[in-house]
Amino acid sequence: MDKNPGTESNFLKIKLKFRLRLILLVPFIVQIIIISGLVGYISYLNGERAVNEVAVNLHSGITERINEYLVNFVETPYKIIQNNAVAISSGILDYNNQTMLERYFLEQIGIYKSVSSIYFGNTSGGIADSGREAVTLTTYFLGTDGFRSGNLRKYSTTITGKRSKTLLTIPAFDCRTRPWYTAALLKGDFVWSDPYILFTGQDMAISASKPVYSSSGKLLGVASADLFLSHIGSFLAGIDIGKTGLSFITDQQGLLIAASTNEMIFTPKKDGEKQRRLGAGESNSLIIRGAAEKLADEFGSLSRINSGRHLEFSPDGSRHFIHVSPFINQAGLDWIIVTVVPESDFMEKISANNRITILLIIGAIILSIIIGIFTSRRIADPVQRLNKAVHDLSRGTWPEQSKETRVVEIDDLKRSFFQMSSQLKTLVENLTVEIKERKLTEKALRESEEKYRDLIKFSNSIIFRIDRKGVITYANDYALNFFGYSPDEILWKNVIGTIVPETDKAGRNLKQMMDEITANPELYERNENENIRKDGTTAWIVWSNRGIPGENGEYTEILCIGTDISERRVAEIEVKKLLNEKEILLHEVHHRIKNNMNTIAGLLYLQSESIDNELASSSLKEAHSRVLSMMLIYDKLFRSNDFNNISTAGYLPDLIAGIIQTFPNFGHVQIKTEIEDCLMGTNTLVPVGIIINELVTNAFKYAFTGVEQGMIDISFLKRGDNLFEIIVKDNGKGLPESIVVGESTGFGLNLVYLLTQQMRGRVEVVRDEGTEFRVKFSV
Known about the structure:
By secondary structure, this protein is α+β, with helices and mostly antiparallel strands. It is 48% helix and 23% strand. Among the domains are: 93-228, PAS domain (Beta-Lactamase, 2-Layer Sandwich); 462-564, PAS domain (Beta-Lactamase, 2-Layer Sandwich), CATH 3.30.450; 565-643; 649-779, Histidine kinase-like ATPase, C-terminal domain (Heat Shock Protein 90, 2-Layer Sandwich). The radius of gyration is 45 Å and the shape is elongated.
């Protein structure tokens, strides 16, 4: 009566069951897919992060290089003008001698290749100018008639630096009306002009100017120098900014200063049309125009850029990285440095790696499905066969059990027989499966060994196996081809004399090294040494060594895998050679400067001894002392390994000792010194030395008249991170109240004042039991 409900329940149970092969295969494939997807996603995120980090680092490095170049670039005219101003104000150059100024400026033009012209305009409207043409690089003179306002004439130059043919005449020229002259007077210090297009229309330039005053404060004129802006463009073009990256520089109005694309940054010269500068938005480069538009959208005005910023934009549908940074100096330059690198420069390898990763993931999934099917079949088939055998046995392969008899012993024997038959059948089937699996395992092992041998044989690395005595027991094809040996020529030969010489070119004992490697390979897991080929040529190889243990755990052989690094070694040797040549060159430069200054000092001294006029002789001796103070710096540089900085403790005591030697009749004056040691650049230490020279010399000359026992106390003290103080104190008769530093008619004290102003410092005078000068300045 209950058969139908029971049958329906059994049917539902059967529908919810799964085959063993499916149970084994599905979870395995799902797990592989999930893991592969996670690996691919993490790989993509890491690639994106790596691109951003590389872009930021590349931008920062390039911007830093450009900023350093610009600092050095604009420093050149500053040094030239500063030196010319000092030379003119001190009388070394006669500011009224137009010919002397032109020749002196021409010598400077020959030294500084980035400078287009150097000139001086006097208070009469006249000008003395020496320059270089933008394209032909020939030199010229520009000068007004009589060195005053009037006709301006341009001359070609001879080999000896004299005026030749008249090339151009401009009437009614007055330098006092020129922007570079008026701007310098308006500011009263060093000033830059706006970039301008040369009247030849071949390049753009920028002028730097500074007013020149006499020691009494009288205006003598304005010293100036021009720079070719094309030099900046050439530098930008030479920087490696990825594969297709670029850089450009603009002013605050967005007008181009220079670009790495070497394009024209101003309109071409046409009849009837005035040339003008081009903005970044008018560039021929789509990338530069897109970057300019992005900066305008981001900041509105470029003057709002006061620090480095990283931006992104897509001018042609592809992602680009922008780094913008301001370049500002104290003389008024305010430019914007922009570098642009497309993402594709970084993404090429990453995209290729992503494609490879996707292919590997797909391959791994396909391989996992194949392995899963094979594994599930290996597991499920024996069970299915056993199940079939059981079914076959149950279907009559074995005799059916007869009906029970009433004899208890016979029924028990029948049941025992059929039970034993079933166990025997199962045992035989299990043994058969085990033998088959063992054979498959042995076959897989043989195939694995063959694949390993093929991998070693055809590898693109140098692979050797050597025994504990250094005898070669195996070499792959790449190693044989690299060293030029056949297997018969190298196998079972010792490495010494075949691929390793007994000593390398530097005298290193390589035989001893090989003995140590075979004895303790773990100490030479990575080793670089010189090797030798069959034809006698040498090669540097980096070796990875690993011991191969035997059955007892001790090493029986050494596996050596090598990579040729000969080209890298040659490059390292060339770099060392270039560094040595640079050091020799710098030593020679400082040596020649020192010798030239020594010659100047000697001429000044000889001239002072030959003049009867005591005032003139004293002035020449003072100039001789100042030259010696500067020469001492170059002597220190020549003897030092640091060509930028000098120790104050090494320079100032020697300077003071030299000053004392020039006053042999002042044995009654005691000298005390306190010098704190610190490293200072020559641009700072030269004026420091001259200031100490002037103050000590003045003390010897004027302080001890009528004083039986004198004392001069000289101190150089560090007052803070960048603050320093010079103290020169004497117990002499004291400085008269009528003498004020900066307003004195004496050259020495005015020179002290000017040099202190140059270092942004101040001079204090204390009149108490003698005279004490305190010069405070910052670096």
